[in-house]
C-alpha cells in the first residue's frame, strides 16, 4: 500500500481527492496506531486550522464506504480506523488500551466470500482482547 501515493490511492478507491481527504488518508497510512476520529482531528488541526470535526468524521465515513479504510469496533468506548484493508486480526490490550495488528501468519483469518448456508460475506473482523507483551513484561517486573 505504501508504494502508491495517497492521491492515487484515493482515486483507486473512487474517492475524489481534496486537501482534507488527502490529509486524513495520509495520516491513516503513516500512523498505524488505529487512531480515533478525534485523534486524527487533533493532529491535523495543526496543519489545517480550518478543519472541522465534522469534516474528519465525514471523510472517514466516505473512506470506509469506498473500502479505502476500515472501521474497528474492537473497543466498545472508541471507534478506531485502519488504513490496512487486507484481512488481518487486531489485538486490544485491556491494560494500556493500544490496538495492534496481528500478522496473518500468526492467526487464522477466514477469507470473505461464500459461507455455509448460502451466506456471502464481504468483510470479516477478528478481534482479540487481553494483555499485550509489553504490559505483561511490566507486570512480571513488579
Mind explaining what this structure looks like?
It is a single chain. By secondary structure, the chain is α+β, with helices and mostly antiparallel strands. The protein is built from 5 helices and 7 strands; from the N terminus they run ααααβββββββα. It has helices spanning 6-12, 19-30, 37-45, 53-65, 133-141; strands spanning 70-75, 78-82, 89-93, 99-102, 113-115, 119-121, 126-130. The strands form 3 sheets. The protein has a 3-stranded mixed beta sheet, with no helix packed on it. Strands 1-2 form a two-stranded antiparallel ribbon. α2 (19-30) crosses α4 (53-65) and α3 crosses α4. The N and C termini lie far apart (41 Å).
Please tell me how large the radius of gyration is.
Answer: 17 Å
Q: The biggest beta sheet, please? A: 3 strands, mixed
As a percent range, the share of helical residues equals 25-40%
Give the topology string: H per helix, E per strand: HHHHEEEEEEEH
Give the rounded overall mean pLDDT: 88
Contiguous helical run count: 5
Terminal CA distance: 41 Å
Structural class: alpha+beta
Shape: globular
Task: Tell me the β content.
Answer: 15-25%
Strand order of the largest sheet: 4-3-7
